[in-house]
Fold this protein.
Amino acid sequence: MAEQVNVRVCLVIICLVLMAPEGLSNPDKFDEELFIRPLPSGHVYSHFQFTTTWDVDVHDPSTFAHYNFFPKSLGQIINKYSVQELHLSLTQGYWRHEKWGYPVSSAPPGAQLWVWFQESTVDIEQTWKELVNVLSGLFCASLNFIDGTVTVKPQLSFRPQGIATDKYSINSTYLRYATLPRENVCTENLTPWKKLLPCDSKAGLSTLLNAMQLYNANYHSLEVHVRPVCANPSCTIPALELSQSLSVVFDQPIREYGKQDWSLKKLFGRGARGACPMASTSNIYVDISSNKTSNLVQLTPEPTDTRVVTRGGGTSTYGVYDLNNWDSSNQLMLAMKWKNKHCYDVNHPPQIHVHRFITGYGQDKGGITCLLFNHDTEKSQSVIYLDTVPWYIRLYLHTLKITTNNKPIKPDWMKYIPGQDRTRGYMLEMVLTLPPDSVTTIGIDFDRAFLKWTEHPPDANIGFHISSAVVSTILQHGNNTFSGQTDSRLFPSLFGSSNQKDFFIRLYSEILLIQLPTPDFSMPYNVICLACTVVAIAFGSLHNLTTRSFAPVDPNKKPTGIKAKIISVIKKIKGHKPDETDKSKNTDEKVDNKCETTEEVKKDR
Amino acid sequence: MSKVTKMSAIEREKEDQSWQHAYAALSIAFLCLVVGLPLWWKTTTTYRASLPDSEITGIASLQTFCKIPVTVVLVGGDVSQNNLNSLQNHLDYTLVSDYSGRYSRLTFHYAVNVRSANKRETDVFRLKSTLKDLDADIYLLDQESTVGSSIVYILQDYSGVFHVSKIHVGRYRHAFVSGQDLKSAAALAAQVVKELHVNEALAAKIHGTAAGVKHTEADVESMRSVRSTPGYELTFSLLNPSPDVIIAKWDIAEGIRSYLDPFLKTLTEYADFTVNSQVLYYMGLAVTPTKDDTNKRYVLNAASLPHLINPVEAKLGSHVSTNPTLNFLVYVPPPSQSPLHILNEHGDTVTNNAFLSPRWGGIMLYNSPRDTSGNVTLPDTVDVDMKTVMEVFLSQLRLLIGVPKQKSDPLLTIASPDNTGITHWELDFLLRTRTLENVATATLTLSSLSQLLGQIRNMVIRDDIAEQVYIAVESIQSTHSYLKDGNMYRAFHSSKRAIQASETAFFDPSLLELLYFPEDQKFAIYIPLFLPMSIPVLMSTVKALKWIKSKRRQNKRAKRD
């Protein structure tokens, strides 16, 4: 049964037939694009995309010698570690699907890396280990913390996106997927990312990438995607495509006194100053579909072209600005102005979205619950759900409960890899069918493990992050998605065509934060001291019992020894003469003490 | 009476108890000593595999004998045995190392073999008319030419035919010296071998530097090349500071194939080379060139050249290799700053418009060959001529990997290398100096490692590190013996192995694991356990011993009584 479902899922997942839009002209091609969409929530979403295509065969190492537009630093890494496909994202903030809809390219909070290695790779584990360290250096990110405990090999969720044989793309032994939800993203990641662009940030759209503005946003995501593609329509010439994208979401009504107005200057601090000279296309696309009569929008200057796309049951209109034909002597001060203040309308969540949280209380047990919403009123939806959990959150499969509208359902297919302490995390991958207009709840319980004191991260009291759950699916109504033909990542292709029927999307849930029992970190020394004292006391008394005996002391005998001498000296200093009155006073006590006062019997006596 | 017996019974009982106590105290002390102490020692001691310390000290004080087989062939004229003997005598006197023990523990020993030209050689000399043909044909017949050897032909008759001024150094391992007078010919032969083929001065200096000799003044010759590396990354970069107005193109793949590959192919034994290229856009110079109005050009003077490299550095490094990178940049100046020229220290224009940065690479300015009228349609296409560029870079690469610069001498002609870009004797020189350098560096590394491990007692020495050290020691010893036998090829490979093993051992991360574990922390952990336990054990042991002693004395007294 599982096999059957597997085949179905394979069909559901993107099966790639690649065709290049143009014939072969230049071994290197560079395109830069910026897409801006005002979101219904009042936010403004901007997505930069820089695509470099290089006619090189990933399987032939000798061709990786002479670089032009393609960055040498990345090309050498792909070649040395025999990478077939590489997808890296570094994200700050969480993309709110229910408010913002679907992004051009989705990414979980923190760092995410998934790599398909070539079939010829000898030792994938070792190569993966070296690759993450090298990428860590290249992008100034803590990717070196990716190790066996966070790496998984999902079977269905992440399939090759470039050209690959069918046999290869279902063999997940070549895939490595890892996330670091705790990773912070900032300018130190942006600078090396910009260095990979042929124009750096000296010309073209990349001049808008101003770190001061970009990191003052609600959501920020840097991505790098490398995949093999075809350079010509007949697919006889292989090529390598590097797509670098940067998404950023600004909250304009807060800045603009309630209006959603934006301009390039307001968002990025400056206007566009022409195209990068190497770019074959340099376009800005503005989504103007949301123009309502109640709140008129004005776009200045007028777009050089408008593109209307009808597909998947909806129509979108985009204004296009071609910077290659723009007079570079004056800046393009693109601006969009609304007549009235932004009206916070009823939120229309997209067809499928996901929400995940922690249940339970205390520092012993807990649970993870994930809600999958299907708002389609007619069609049920098949989705792939992937959850990866670190080993110290011990999942119990028997507690897995999946209910849809309070009725328990069974997953169509499931793969569960239990974790192992300190070596492997837990992975749960399922195929579920979500009935129309339903909320499906996935719940699973866990125990919190005790960590050794050296296993806690610095600043352990923050807690531990659990990476996002991944939901992948193919929608039938994809008018609000950016899942175009997979031959090209350029926007005209992402906008899609009217005959497109399947729209692949991938959603990421929230990351979770969990408190584990956290020790006081001065503990080790205290424990050493305490344990030593206990051992010393136990040993001391035992030792005393075996080597000494207790016997009564004759009170009349004048005490000799150091102690008695010291006491008599102290008494002399105090000026007290051991006179009669004192003695008579103390007699009663002394009598009482007589039988209790013990002293060790000298062995030599 | 009964009272007395009762008392003695109590006494006896007491005494028995005291015996028991004494035995208990002693057995606890015994257990602590026999079980506790070794257990503690065993569990806290660091694993240290044994190292060949004495052998390391041995190789550190070892003298490096470098035997160089030299064959001197007398061609034409009087080739009688008598004459050969007198030549041998002259050579024995002149062909002696100048550097024995002066710079370091390095001695060159020349094994001279004097003979007359055989029939085939004489034929070649008779038939050929140019030095080039002669050189090539002699090479073809020669069977004695092994790596690291040198052969000098003393032309008694033919010098006029071949226009040998005094000395001609061939492309291979031959040199031709003219001389009717045997004494002066022997002196010239010695000069060729010592100053060119072997280049004693430079070899000794490089060996000395690697062995840790401090030089008081900067030395260009020994600082230029990258030292002791198993390979090089060669990166060629085309810098286009203004892609909006200049379209710069180069056929680097073809350029490398036709100009660089033959050179690298001959050096495959010597080191691994990886070659790649890139084009960098919007990569300007950090220095603004000054305008030279008289010549209608822009100039960069020698003092500002060091500042050019820094801004480019960010895009040059490699993330995948640990070998040193040698960078070769072609900079196409923007129209607003062209033509751009480099001036040397004396203010003269540098003819090839390029400069070299020691241990880093070279930069060449490539002016667009546009017409000077200034009416150029933009964008201007610049097709970089690979021949001019690669010629400059090849000569820079030669210097950067350590081929010495030859001084010009009117009496001396040196055959330029063929398309491989390097002559056989230069390659021999590279192999010899690299061998000496490797062996000196490896020896130095091993002695500092053994010193370090001797000083810091709680460093772990794993078995595999010890194995690397043994391999290094063994390889150094075999390098020495190969050098002594004059077997350059074997010596080079064994020195390579030595340096690899010694570096692996020295830089192994496991050595650092316990390096920063101070003694005071150890005692802070031991004291709470050991102090409260050891004091009572010690005290009771002392007491028990005293009691037993007194009892013995009593017994003795009782016996005597």
Notes: The first strand of chain A starts at residue 28 and ends at 38. The interface with chain B takes residues 64-69, 72-73, 76-77, 80-81, 134, 137-138, 195, 198-200, 202-203, 277-278, 525, 528-529, 532-533, 535-537, 539-540, 543-544, 546-549, 603-604 of chain A (CB under 8 Å). The two ends of chain A are 92 Å apart (CA to CA).
